[in-house]
Design brief:
The complex is a heterodimer of chains A (338) and B (684). With 338 residues, chain A is of the alpha+beta class. Chain A has helices at residues 2-17, 22-33, 39-45, 55-85, 108-122, 136-139, 172-180, 221-235, 289-294, 313-319, 332-335; strands spanning 126-128, 133-135, 164-166, 185-194, 206-216, 242-247, 252-261, 278-287, 303-310. Helix content of chain A is 37%, strand content 19%. Chain B has 684 residues and is an alpha+beta fold. The chains are: A alpha+beta (338), B alpha+beta (684).
Chain lengths: 338, 684
Amino acid sequence: MSQSIEGLQKRFDEDFAAITDMDTWKSVRDKFLAREGGIITTGMKRLRELPKEERPVFGQAMNRLRSSVEKQLQERYAELKKAAITGGQRHLDVTRPGFPYALGSAHPIKRLQADIEQILVNMGFRLFDLPEVERDYYNFEALNMPPNHPARDEQDTFYFDDTMLLRTHCTSVDVHAMEGLRPPIRAASTGKVYRRDPFDATHSPMFYQVDVVVIDEGITMGDMKGMLEVFLKQVFHSDIKMRLRPGFFPFVEPGAEVDISCIFCNGAGCPTCKQSGWIEILGAGMCHPKVLRMSGIDDSRYTGFAWGMGIDRVPMLKYGVEDIRLLFDNDLRFLEQF
Amino acid sequence: MKISTEWLAEYVEIRESPQKLKDDLSMIGLLVEAIEEAEGTSILEVEVTSNRPDCLSHIGIARELAALYDRPLRFPETQETLRIESDRIPFEIEIRDPELCPRYTALVLDGIRVGESPDWMQRRLVAAGMRPLNNIVDITNYVLLEMGHPLHAFDYDILRQARIVVAKARNGEKMYTLDGVERELDADMLLINDGEGPVAIAGVMGGMESEISLSTTRVLLESAYFRPDSIRRTSKKLGLSTESSYRFERGADWNNTVPAAGRVCRLVEQLAGGRIAGNIQDVYPKKKEPVCIELKRENASSLIGVTMEREFIESTLSRLNFKLEENGTDSWSVTCPTYRADMELEADLIEELARFYGYQNIPTTLPPCRNVGRYSPVYKLENTIREILIGLGFNEAINLSFADESDSEEFSTGSDERVGVRNPLTEDMKYMRTVLAPGLVRSVKRNFNMDRRLVRLFEIGKVYRRGPDGTPKERNMLGIIGTGGFTEQNWKQPDASFDFFHMKGTLLTILRGLRIHSYEIEPTDAFRWLNPTDAAVLEIDRKQVGVMGSLSASLEEKYKLRQPAFLAEIEFESLAENAFAPMNFEPLPRYPSSERDISIVVSRDLAYRKIQTCVADIKIAELVKIALVDVYEGDKIPSGKVSLTLRLTFQDRGKTLTVDRVQDFVDTVLSSLYKTYGAELRSK
């Protein structure tokens, strides 16, 4: 009996030594341990054929053999596996390019527009998607620009007929919001605006703007400054400085031009800011009492402010895009950079 | 407005450097865009906003600086008394339209020697951007730049009658203006007439005939006030903007007509040897009163957001030449200088206070937020679509919203819904776009020109169509275009081209992202810009919301694309109702599912959807998914047939499915397909 166990052990040792890869490992395992026909498995099954008194001794010996075989095979398996991973025969040239999954890009204007909308919603603004084809009333008259107002000159306008035009700014949100909502109002709108400018490096007949309006009791210029600062720091950078200068827009009084410290030189002076350290970024002001009244807001009780900013200018500034036409050329070499 | 610092210093003491002036002026609302160094002076390029015509002169700027630095303003020498110094030369003024011309001041100067103006004057004119002509014209221009009041000099001897008639033109009346152009006038334009015919377009430009020449010896000088909107209309209609019209249309100072005329007289006496030959005539039929505004301290403080001290209010406004009269506690009646055309309401005065308080000194505060932010309905749709398409490899495009004549023909859907722009920028921008496709096709073409043949773009933007009531209506659209390879050329996978099913898959992925679960895709031939062979519409709730397909062969040829391009156009705003269906959680199944692949051979004309419907109609509750995993057409099956391999997934939520039960299901499916469409199991 003990001889046959030794013989088994010997046969296994020989085969085991010949294992070189997973395939030979598998055949050795099956030869000795397969559920059907494995040498050791079969040996175990044949225990029953032995005389009763020999069974315990032989049985124990077979069990020992089986566990040692299992243990050796297991260890060898781990070794082979490790070899396969760390430089075995299935070695990949990992320096070849990976699969080129396509990834597109958001247009820099649209990305910024979405960011701005998110910032404004977080500041309590309700966003409106307003018509680009607008009535003269909402674009000009209700904003204190009656026909023949000189300020209309600065906004050369595309007309469809005597009353319908392509909006020249998003400021129409002021009027729509005042007509449609009751104070307290925080409303904003972003989108395309149009001016009849030639299409060249610095002008486009179509561009993007964001306009906001806030109306409540006791709103002050200080409040306007505060909210502008929160907004601009989120759009640009928390370190920027802001500066307000008196400015003129017919729909606000007092009016303001808002500058930010140059994002390139931090105010030290560089070609982008024409050495001034400041970049003109938006127009703002306290809602003109006439504008409030025309849209049905009691100007003896409520005050408010409004501001409007060009969106296209921001990526142009940020990324140093010098020709505005690039924004509307849809050249992949441009779009893929964002 | 070009302001020379050397000239400015005549009216107010300047101790500041040009740079300091630039900063200080900018902070009170007179933005200095640039400083230019010139001989003996610095030129400040001041951007004067349209509400401040009073700052369109050196004295105007000096007035602001005098108020800012609290220094006295020095007025130039004028001929104040306007004595008669020679024989009276007669003339008459008649204002027929006092609404449009409330004041007309004029006088005649005699004994003039027309020649060059002195160097110092020429230098100043040139520095301010004007071309010297002769001493008389130069003097009127000089006074314009100095005092801001437009003036005009007529050659008295050329006037056919010694009369000035201010009246509207007759329709079709014609005259040559100083620039040598024949102008056709209409009844809306105000003219200066000599009793026989026009000699000037009031406030805009003089006539060529009565122009000052070297032989002029007698001059009739006009110093008038014309109503801003009238001048503006005339200037616009004629397309003629002059230094004069620029100031009148913004608002001149009606009290400045006499001082400006006096100043011209003084300079003519000094530089051109002339004398006043007759009384000044000042016809002022409609007396204008200065604007008077009530100001309350409390209102100023609460609008600006900081307490305005009495002393500050009084001293600031006084320095700016406003007259304050107290009419209650902390309340004033404020009379505005007549040159301040921008003064109308209390807010205008408050701006003056804020300007001189310094916007930078106003403390920054945040108002309490009493609103909850909310996106517009389009926002979420648009941004979800954008993120999905970016993930699928599309780049976002933006095209101009305009279209040309051929676009609307080639991409029309039948009835003419185009919206025409009345004053288009160029011929190819005559219309508003009715579809996004043309812009996307041209964008693709531009990329082809750069040797980029794999192009995938999308655009989210509006299209514009005439509504049933005739007014333009706009809709939010999504346009997609894909052409070239499905992926970049690579070693890993053979190159597949972007085709119809990639476009369809793109759309279905978007619908999945929007959680729109029920829709139909139907073939169509209603779009002439798409090939009828593969065009399809997307329908939701039986409403057509989009279309997709390949660009028609003729357009592919027109744009010389030389490879198929696949397009889709979705009116995504109308998806809002169906999008973002609530998310429902279903407990995960506790028992394994079973998959079976069956390959059937059917006629190639049989739509796949019919097979799907046929299988679904058997209503095997355990059949949870049908997928088409292979399609074969070729030698191994009869011609006219197609082999489809369907993968059926079965799942019983209550127990493990037995092999026999699954086989029963498969047999049921096969026999139903066989009975309905003669589908045969494909033999291996």
